[in-house]
UniProtKB/TrEMBL annotation, chain A:
Keywords: Cell membrane, Membrane, Transmembrane, Transmembrane helix, Transport
Ranges that cross the membrane: 28-47, 93-112, 124-144, 183-201, 231-253, 279-301
Subcellular location: Cell membrane
Membrane topology, record value: Multi-pass membrane protein
Domain spans labelled ABC transmembrane type-1: 87-300
CDD domains: TM_PBP2 (cd06261)
Protein's UniProt name: Sugar ABC transporter permease
Coiled coil: none
PROSITE patterns: ABC_TM1 (PS50928)
Family: Belongs to the binding-protein-dependent transport system permease family.
TrEMBL record, chain B:
Full protein name: Extracellular solute-binding protein
Leader peptide range in chain numbering: 1-22
InterPro entries registered for this protein in UniProt: Bact_solute-bd_prot1, SBP
Keywords: Signal
Amino acid sequence: MAVHQVETNIHQKVKVSIKQKKKKKFNYVPYVFLLPAIVLLLVFEYLPTINAFYYSFTEYHILSPAEWTGLQNYKMMMEDEKFWIALGNSMKYFVITVPMLITLPLFLAILVNRTIKGITLFRVIYYLPVVTAMVAVAIVWKYLYHPTGLINAALHGMGWDHANINWLLNKKTALPAVSMLEAWKAAGFYMLIYLAGLQTVSKELIEAAKIDGASKVRILWHVYLPQLRPVFAVTVVMATLGTVQMFTSIYVMTGGGPLDSTMSLPLYIYQKAFVEFDMGYATAMGMVLWLILMVLTIINYKLSRGGQSIQ
Amino acid sequence: MKGKKLAAFILVFLLAFIPLLACSNDEKASGDGKNGNKIELEFWTINLKKNFNDYIQGMISDYEKANPNVKIKWVDVPGADASKKFLTSLQSKKVPDVVNLASSDISMIQQYNVLSPINKLVSKDELNAYIPGLIDSLTFQDELQGLPWYYGGPPIGTINTEIYKKAGLDADNPPKTWEESLKNGKLIHEKLPKVYGSNDLPGIEVFVSQGLPILNDDHTKAVFNSDEHVKFVQMFVDGYKNGAIAPGAVTKDDRQLQQTYENKQQAQAGQSVAAALLNLEKNAPNEITKIKVTKPVTGGDGTIAVKAIQTFVVPKKSEHPKEAAKFALFVTNAKNQLDFAKIVPIFPSTTETLEDPFFKESKGKTIHDEARKIMVETAPHLKVNILGIKDEEKLRDYYTEQIRAAMMGELSAKEALDKSVDYWNQALKNQK
């Protein structure tokens, strides 16, 4: 009884002291330390975004003051054939590149997850393209895709004598060719994410599956993949954001050609903003791109069930 | 303890706001040139520092010596970014004073009314030093928007003599018309399947040299879809199919052509800038020895049109427009342009420079001398094709894109020209 009394007293005292503390002191220290990041984000991210939202309703050519035109830019976008071509191409990049970025790096990660001699070297080799500048890589790939370049030479070597494909100047092959480069360059990055994921997979589960007589494929399918669900959530979202915003490789390799067949929405926005200086229209398209990315991200996240792994 | 806390707070605040200080405007005004205060003129050039640092720096030193109250701050900007950087700078309070811009950029920028009319800053006599045609092409509504500087000059023709010989053609009898050029190209590709004729496309300037009109007389309508225009473009479309024109000629960035003299896949160029020889000399010293410079391929009357020249503009926001214009006059004077022409095959904008024996009595020792000689011969037939219409660059790009579509078989020559003319007319209607 006495013990119970003491416990209640202590409990009440603690409660009172917490309340007093709460009343007395507001802990501002964390906010102060957050301040530099908040200020920078506000100035360089959110304010320009809000500004861009405003400019998307104006006719603005940098040198003359912005004039409010309401929904005119958005209306123009609906009638702009090139906008739809660029949007369609961005979706094609998404459809071609994202599956490659989700599957190929996974297999690479499984390969480099083995404990064999010199595995670090392989990891470095696969990762090297990630740290190489896109402009440099794109120029090299331009030579690979040249009609008399290495790719056609390899096809000739394999007996395809008529291989004289002008990869970057053919409307059918230019877009997949650029997508291949993007997938090749980013594969190492996603491999590393998968590798980190693979190394957190519970060893007990794998042991149990082996004892139960599961084959390697079944272990991959039923043990590894469900446990990698959070990693998939990350890779899918990142790959989506990356591919829909593809710009540098296209700018360097094709400039959006031939005949706009590789023109992505970001490249078209760039052309409108910094070649034609039609900032109002460019920001309106930027808003649409932002909206598309938000929707795709939410869908991806929902499909991967919020990145929760299945235990 | 309190002191430590205070110090921590100050540090955090500094961390948060110091980066933002960089966003402030640099409002440090330059002096007025009186009482020992020096006037500072910011001088922009496009991509010249790497190869011509000594020449530009020498000019600046000479000017500063002769004008002790002026200090020149030289800024060299990358070629592709020049107009973007200039427009962005106009948003700030500190603008450059003398800016090198291509005339094609002027046609885009002049609609914003941000350039000082040069003819109000310098005397008429001073402007008489320049080739009248160039001054006229840069004058919009009686206002001279820029002072003409150098340009690539009239185009030259080039042929690879080795390829010509292998194909059984006579390099001493180069093609004079587009018909002849395309015929030779076809023959070369037939005999040497890995080699193509040229990278020539029927750009809008080619119409001018062919004597075919682009706009009607009062510049209110595009007229380049007549039967003659279609026939002319069709000739190139056929050439693209039969190898007279290289497959890579339709590439969007003409600095990244696929079939070139460097890789031995190009036999000739109907119209090329003389400065391209410098790159060839640097990149393929063995190949340049096979190149012969010829008169440019053109139409019947020999007229030649160039798209753009280099100019100097003075922004209205400049604090010292008069001094800026004076410096621009100095940089573009006959002597300085002659010195420049001696180190690089450019063409000057001043008549006096062209009278110099360097241009008049070229002995033709090197391929560059040969090129210069041909350019001087062609100069009387030269036109600078500035149409002076709003969004000119955008309209030209649209035209070129339709030509590419025709070459690649996506549109017929007639469809491509009709589509371009409709687009141009729509834009011209909105300019009224």
